[in-house]
Automatic annotation (TrEMBL):
CC cofactor: Zn(2+)
GO biological process assignments: mannose metabolic process; N-glycan processing
Transmembrane segments: 7-26
Catalytic activity of the protein: N(4)-{beta-D-GlcNAc-(1->2)-alpha-D-Man-(1->3)-[alpha-D-Man-(1->3)-[alpha-D-Man-(1->6)]-alpha-D-Man-(1->6)]-beta-D-Man-(1->4)-beta-D-GlcNAc-(1->4)-beta-D-GlcNAc}-L-asparaginyl-[protein] + 2 H2O = 2 alpha-D-mannopyranose + an N(4)-{beta-D-GlcNAc-(1->2)-alpha-D-Man-(1->3)-[alpha-D-Man-(1->6)]-beta-D-Man-(1->4)-beta-D-GlcNAc-(1->4)-beta-D-GlcNAc}-L-asparaginyl-[protein]
Annotated source species: Polypedilum vanderplanki (Sleeping chironomid midge)
Lineage: Eukaryota, Metazoa, Ecdysozoa, Arthropoda, Hexapoda
Topological relation to the membrane, as annotated: Single-pass type II membrane protein
Name of protein: Alpha-mannosidase
Pathway: Protein modification; protein glycosylation
Length: 1122
């Protein structure tokens, strides 16, 4: 009996064990394609800038994961995309999509993550202890028994070369002098050595080289290397983008430009891993974009050295990077953080750079580079291989124990590496000797090989499911590479070029949108113009471009490209507008003609001399102007044009009078003795201001009619001008019907009407207080300009990258009364003051909810000066404030007293706000800048910086090429009494609808076009009246033609933001987005079908069966219309 019981129990145990084993293997063992490929071969210090969730990936219909069609043959399925329905179309009913059946954003629920970076920053001591050979870490130890013959250490040596498309040299110079040689040698050495691998990131370089290849034989070699997985593209973007100053629209543009080229050239649409080794800090917007582009993995490098140490101590350098709002983990992207100081060879093989440098065989004696630690590499021979192998295996092991798996990534490269054939040979031959010895030495328990980034990630995923790694929310700003050297200066450096970037971004988006509404002949050349503009914007997103951290002449080179891009975008805009607004029977185009002048009020500087002045009178009695609205909702806003005469009447296309206002034009000039600037009024130019409206994604036509006197147009009013000055001066306004009033300097206030915001100003014309409307309480908002100097101690000073102030900011005293000009009108009221370093203007407009601030900054006469604008209030925000990430989301920040001032500075690409239970104050900016809320109730934002010296990060110069720059801001004051108070642990904030719409006015204002001819035959009244208006919050990020798919294909990327929960706001959850109705397409029109796509719009995926598409707050979706 006892024996039977024992057998019975044993049987139960065996059954339970095998059931457990089955479920364990089922949940943890990936497919065979992810297994480690056991392929064993047979045979300058980087000075630059030193110092539980599954992925949901939509499978394309024409699956090309194996890149089988690289050699140029036409894919029959691909070629038929434009001719007939896709074979075996998958129908995607959007309403039943599992991922979207419920939203992952719930403002009432604090999202959970294993690591929240704001909490991490609170925990880290920032003590900067000396860690020994790993200066910023500790002495790593390991147990040699954790590896054995069944569980070997898998070492992936990944050759790479980081090529900046502009920094010390221009893109063209780098290509001709270095990058071209890298590719030529790559082609030879990879072709001759099948076990050699290479990864490449910057498609801007690769496309230029590949397109220049003269023979099909060379191109076929490249395709074979890709197919054999010897050459791997990582990220696939046009450049490796900055993540602080760049807007996410432009980041997506850069990624798309590179990936579309790869798709067209090699039929590659399956890049799964991103590589970002050089951006100066990392934004959580990046994993979100990558996730929506179909990525599974990403790699980052430049994070604060204390953050690296903190995560390394916990084996959390690999994590699932999750979005701040995500309550379900559907946005997770597996992320690898490199642990050490830099991405060069001395800092990638292990913790001891002195040892690792000896395995950078580019530094062999006579090769032109040396090791700073005075111990050079030696060639690997039979005599020394055992000792050398032991040295490097020790480093590999030490690095590996910082991570959770037995796979370790060892990048082998640096800036502009592998330019010479001898480097390719030296690295390959010497490492192959090490591999052969190590892989055949049983005591090591190591498998090492040349590999690609994807091979490493596949190995990690084979060993552990991603749900075994922690989830992380937050970002990695502000970056410090050593000591208190925080890289917060580049948030502002070269604001003139940063402003050009935003202007181009908006014009390109508008040009692509208008161009896509109708079909065009290929001979127009418009696609080429748009391509140039896309590539100009994309290359400037490089992390030494929009950051303002390149040589003076390199910045000028970027500027030339962007200026050409703006011109090309404008040309396409005006051609498209003429076609859309001209009757088809009248439309006979000249594709080289300029039908409209675009009234560009978005200049980077304050100089308005390039703007058109509309001349109408007896000979030309009227002019047509056009307004374009790029948003998905009807907009009513005040617009401005310059006219030559003050008597103008505005009518809409139906002849109805439109309220208008005429204001004298004046500019500021310094006197002969360089005193404070004085206003000079024009007698040949006046400002015409009127209320305009335009439908969603539409156009409206207005007519400006010349009159001879004031009484002929009752709908036009005239501003009253008052000048505060100690010394009156003569003013000639010619025909202007209102007289100028002079007064002694005094406090004053402005308000358009009872329902609009009001503002009061001191006698200098500088803001003192704000109110929402005439019935709301007045809130003190004191504006002042201040300056930071640069410290002298510790042998390090501020430069293009670093912000190292000499202490708190000092107020810039106003030592004499400046001249103040006040303009009061029914549609606009403004106050302007001329200071020694800035022309400061504050503007209120009818129908607006913000005070607009314009600072024309000129600090060319200063030295080692960083100018800020500070707003001081009684808002009790304590040490909490919110800044945006790349224009997409607002992240919570906290001032940390244990971190120096410069470490509490953050990038402000578009906005910052502070709040308490009663009041919120938001500041939106037209230019990406740096700023903070260093003290309760304060917002400060830097305006410009001029620095005489290099900050020893490789640039080799200061920042002294300053240009006068116009920084435009919107200041929005809002009551919080009707708004839901979020949990104190909620990691982000949301704008209200009001604030959001004001920000859109700043970033995407109306485009204003002036018809260049006297009469316009066949003019239509408008375009877009059949576009169904969407709620504010829906954004058309991209609307463009997709010639790589078919001639008439249109790509759309749609984003839905989330609004704060106030009594007047929408919850944003579960709302529908109807593409056909928004675009004014007939719902029964079968010629247009909608397909889902990734946000890079490479190819159609599932067909969308339901035209009403659910979009939750913060969703991004890509669509292709065919």
């Amino acid at each position: 009996m006892i024996r039977i019981k024992k057998k019975f129990l044993l049987a139960i145990f065996v059954v339970v064990f095998f059931v457990y084993l089955y479920f364990y293997l089922y949940s943890n063992v990936p497919s065979n394609s992810e297994k480690f490929i056991d392929t064993v071969p047979k045979t300058i210090p980087n000075y630059k800038k030193y110092s539980n969730v599954h992925d949901v990936v939509e499978k394309p219909l024409d699956d090309i994961n194996d890149n089988d069609n690289l050699l140029g043959e036409e894919d029959p399925e691909q070629s038929n995309l434009g001719k007939k329905d896709l074979i075996n179309d998958q129908i995607l009913p959007e309403n039943n999509n599992d991922v979207e059946s419920s939203c992952n954003l719930d403002i009432d629920t604090v999202p959970n993550s294993d690591i929240q970076m704001l909490n991490v920053y609170n925990e880290i001591p920032f003590d900067n202890l000396d860690g020994g050979v790993w200066k910023q870490g500790w002495n790593i130890e390991y147990d040699i028994h954790q590896w054995n013959r069944n569980h070997k250490l898998k070492v992936f040596i990944v050759p790479h070369s980081h090529n900046d498309p502009g920094w010390i040299n221009t893109f063209d110079e780098y290509y001709e002098r270095q990058t071209k040689q890298i590719f030529s040698n790559m082609l030879r050495h990879l072709d001759e050595n099948e076990n050699m691998k290479f990864i490449w990131a910057e498609i801007v370089y690769f496309s230029r080289w590949y397109d220049s290849l003269m023979t099909s034989e060379s191109k076929d070699k490249v395709k074979r290397l890709i197919k054999n997985k010897q050459l791997e593209f990582v990220t696939g973007g046009w450049v490796m983008t900055d993540e602080a100053a760049s807007h996410w629209y432009s980041i997506l543009q850069s990624l798309t430009e590179g990936q579309v080229w790869l798709k067209k050239t090699f039929n590659i649409s399956n890049i799964k891993s991103s590589w970002a080794i050089d951006p100066f800090g990392h934004s959580s917007v990046m994993p979100y974009i990558f996730k929506e582009a179909g990525f599974e993995n990403m790699l980052i490098q430049r994070t604060h050295y204390s953050v690296k140490k903190y995560l390394a101590q916990r084996k959390e350098l690999e994590f699932r990077w999750r979005q701040l709002w995500d309550t379900k983990g559907t946005t997770d992207l597996f992320t690898h953080m490199m642990p050490f100081y830099s991405y060069d060879v001395p800092h990638t093989c292990g913790p001891d750079p002195k040892i690792c440098c000896q395995f950078d065989f580019k530094r062999l004696p006579g090769y032109g580079l040396s090791c700073p630690w005075k111990v050079p590499p030696v060639p690997i021979t039979d005599d020394n291989v055992a000792k050398r192998a032991e040295m490097i295996v020790d480093q590999w092991r030490k690095k590996s124990v910082l991570y959770k798996t037995r796979s370790v990534l060892i990048p082998l490269g640096d800036d502009f590496r592998y330019t010479q054939s001898m480097e390719w040979e030296a690295q390959r031959v010497n490492f192959e000797k090490i591999f052969e010895y190590v892989n055949n030495e049983p005591s090591f328990n190591v498998e090492a090989k040349f590999a690609t980034l994807q091979e490493y990630f596949d190995s990690v995923r084979h060993e552990k499911g991603t749900n075994q790694f922690p989830s992380l929310t937050g970002d990695f700003f502000t970056y410090a590479d050593r000591d208190d050297h925080y890289w917060s200066g580049y948030f502002t450096s070269r604001p003139f070029y940063k402003r050009i970037d935003r202007i181009l971004m908006n014009y390109l988006r508008t040009a692509e949108m208008l161009h896509s509404w109708t079909s065009w002949e290929k001979s127009t050349g418009f696609e080429k113009r748009l391509e140039q503009a896309r590539r100009a914007l994309s290359i400037f997103q490089h992390h030494d471009g929009v950051t303002g951290t390149a040589k003076d002449y390199v910045m000028a080179d970027y500027n030339e490209m962007m200026t050409d891009g703006i011109k090309n975008s404008k040309f396409v805009i005006q051609q498209a507008v003429y076609k859309l607004l001209t009757e088809s029977n009248i439309y006979h185009p000249d594709y080289s003609f300029t039908y409209f002048n675009i009234d560009d009020s978005r200049t980077a500087a304050s100089d308005d001399s390039s703007r058109s002045v509309i001349i109408i009178g007896d000979e030309i009695p009227y002019k047509y102007v056009v307004i374009h609205n790029s948003q998905t909702y009807l907009r009513n806003e005040v617009v401005e044009f310059f006219v030559a005469k003050p008597f103008v009447c505005v009518t809409d296309a139906d002849g109805n009078s439109v309220d208008a206002q005429i204001t004298p034009f004046f500019s500021w000039h310094k006197g002969i003795y360089q005193g404070l600037p004085q206003p000079q009024f024009s007698t040949t130019k006046y400002r015409l201001i009127f209320s305009a409206s335009a439908p969603a994604l539409g156009l409206s036509v207005y007519k400006l009619n010349a009159k001879n006197k004031r009484d002929e147009c009752p709908s036009t009013t005239y501003s009253k001008i008052t000048i505060f000055t100690d010394n009156q001066f003569a003013i000639n306004l010619d025909e202007y019907p209102e007289k100028v009033t002079f007064a002694e300097p005094k406090e004053t206030s402005l308000r358009i009407n009872e329902n609009s915001p009001g503002a009061s100003f001191n006698k200098y014309g500088i803001l003192k207080s704000l109110s929402q409307d005439s019935k709301s309480p007045v809130v003190p908002v004191h504006l002042e300009f201040m300056r930071y100097g640069t410290r002298m101690a510790h042998g390090q000073r501020s430069g293009a990258y670093l912000f190292l102030p000499d202490g708190p900011a000092q107020k810039l005293e106003i030592k004499e009364n400046p001249t103040v000009v006040i303009s009061n009108g029914q549609l606009e009221a403004s106050i302007s003051t001329g200071l020694s370093f800035v022309i400061h203007e504050s503007i209120l407009r009818s129908g607006g909810d913000a005070l607009e601030i314009r600072n024309s900054v000129d600090i060319r006469e200063t030295s080692n000066t960083e100018i800020i604008m500070r707003l001081s209030t009684n808002i009790k925000n304590e040490n909490v404030f919110f800044t945006d990430l790349n224009g997409m989301q607002y992240i919570k920040r906290k001032i940390l007293k244990k971190v120096p001032l410069q470490g509490n500075y953050y990038p402000i690409p578009t906005g910052i706000f502070i709040e308490d239970d009663l009041i919120r104050l938001s500041l939106f900016t037209s230019t990406p800048l740096g700023g903070s809320s260093l003290n309760p109730g304060e917002i400060e934002i830097m305006q410009d910086r001029r620095l005489n010296q290099d900050d020893e990060r490789g640039l080799g110069q200061g920042v002294t090429d300053n240009k006068p720059v116009l920084n435009i801001f919107k200041l929005v004051l809002e009551s919080r009494e009707s708004c839901k108070k979020n949990d104190e642990q909620y990691p982000m904030g949301f704008l209200t609808t009001t604030a959001y719409m004001e920000q859109k006015k700043l970033l995407h204002p109306f485009e204003k076009l002036i018809y260049s001819e006297n009469d316009w035959n066949g003019v239509k009244h408008s375009f877009g009246n059949d576009h169904e208006e969407q709620e504010p919050g829906f954004e058309i990020v991209v609307m463009r033609t997709l010639p790589h798919i078919q001639a008439n294909a249109i790509g759309l990327v749609v984003h839905r933001t989330n609004f704060d929960k106030c009594s007047v706001e929408s919850s944003m959850n579960g709302n529908q987005f109807n593409i056909k109705r928004l675009l004014g397409l007939d719902e029964n029109e079968e010629s247009r079908e909608i397909y889902r796509s990734t946000v890079t719009l490479l190819e159609p995926h599932q067909k969308v069966s339901d035209e009403s598409i659910p979009m939750c707050g913060m969703d991004i979706k890509g669509f292709i219309l065919k």
